[in-house]
Amino acid sequence: MSRTDAILKRLSMLHPKLIDLSLERLNRLLDDLGRPDHHMPPVIHVAGTNGKGSTIAYLRAMLEAAGKSVHVYTSPHLVRFNERIRLAGKLVSTRRLNAVLERVEQVNAGQPITYFEVTTAAAFVLFSEIKADYLLLEVGMGGTYDTTNVVEHPLGIIITPVDLDHMAFLGNTIGKIAVEKANIMKRGSPAVIARQAEEGLASINRVAARLGVVPFVGGEDFDAFAQDGRLIYQDDKGLLDLPPPKLIGNHQFENAGVAIAAIRHFGLPVDEAAMAQGLGDVVWPARLSPVAGKLRDLLGPGAELWLDGGHNAHGTRALARALEDMNRARPAPLVLIMGMMNTRSPAAVLAPFEGMAERIITLTIPGEPNAHEARYIAEEASKAGFKASAARTIEAALKSAATTPNARVVISGSLYLAGQVLLKNGTFPE
User: Fold this and answer.
1) 213 and 243 in one domain?
2) 212 and 294 housed in the same domain
3) Using CB atoms within 10 A as the burial measure, which of 110, 233, 352, 355 is most buried?
4) Which residues form the Mur ligase central domain (predicted)?
5) Do residues 41 and 156 both lie within one domain?
6) 397 lies in which domain range?
């Protein structure tokens, strides 16, 4: 076990629950640390069900193309915890990460606090001590009581598409979940809202009205879409004709459009040339990303291997649409390798692939005690009409997929599974 893992293990034992939505414990620790959250660069706070990370990746790429330095806080990580904290463009070093975690652990002095709270406090210390022009801050879960919601005066708020997820904590309807997400909005901070389901937008608008915020809404105040291989963005300031985003799928045109809307609505110093450069420079691993290397080699010639972190029905719908587009461009039999956490319904996650997937190979996510068993996912997939089988390991699943000649093999269902795939492949996000 690495020193970082040992520290994180100790910190995870300070509270009996992994998730306990509250701000009291974190505010107490931040007080003891001298309120580092009051000394961070201007914050752009991002909530939503899906698309948060991609939207942040576009914003970061465009801001950096404009010569700005950017801190980033996202979760979860894929391979190493360091991925959660980016300091002025670079992932936090292991030495600096260990030092700040131990420092915060010492100040906390064994008092009850959750893993995400104490690690967020550590990130805030780093963000306060290292200079940058902006901080892109991703909500961990929900919004109202998420640890990141201690930020009092963000430069701007973004809410990406809201859908059903984490219902045990956030509510069992899109409307209820949208209220939780919308509660990151602050009086006096402009808000950009991605295109939403009607029920979700109604909830967001009610919260905005209470705060005196006039939201800038996708599909009403701005729009972004693919046209002749280009990204077309338009709002009341005019139309932009930009190159397509590097990330794959029509949903990425929408995510990039939300980032552009934020740049224009928040008044960020990014011109059209920097937007275009950022669209080509953007990097966000495990979002329908091609996989090369030793795992791909298990498939043999003529096959493709792709990795995607889609982990709920909204995410897999977007993945299915992207795969349909890929199949129109180059037809290939689709083989899905799926693993998921036990908070997900296999039938709901797999439903978008009806009529598309030639077969499904299921996995138990390695090292995850709260993952669905591969056999259970396969049984549920079979009940839903898919040809499905379980595999014991990632390598075994790929060798099974290799029996379908010239297949398009896609590994999906969980970011935790995506992380295990990258680890097995020796691929470390930078």
Assistant:
1) yes
2) no
3) 233
4) 46-262
5) yes
6) 289-425
Q: How many structural domains compose the chain?
A: 2
Count how many Cα atoms sit within 13 Å of the Cα of residue 148 in the half-sphere of its side chain.
Answer: 26
Domain-located, residue 150 = yes
| Tens digits of pLDDT across the chain (430 residues) | 799 999 999 988 888 776 677 899 999 999 999 999 999 999 999 999 999 999 999 999 999 999 999 999 999 999 999 999 999 999 999 999 999 999 999 999 999 999 999 999 999 999 999 999 999 999 998 888 999 999 999 999 999 999 877 667 777 899 999 999 999 999 999 999 999 999 999 999 999 999 999 999 999 999 999 999 999 999 999 999 999 999 999 999 999 999 999 999 999 999 999 999 999 999 999 999 999 999 999 998 999 999 999 888 889 999 999 999 999 999 999 999 999 999 889 999 999 999 999 999 999 999 999 999 999 999 999 999 999 999 999 999 999 999 999 999 999 999 999 999 999 999 999 8
User: Quick count: other Cβ atoms within 10 Å of Cβ 290?
Assistant: 10
Q: Which value, in Å, is the radius of gyration of the alpha carbons in the chain?
A: 21
Residues 309 and 232 in one domain: no
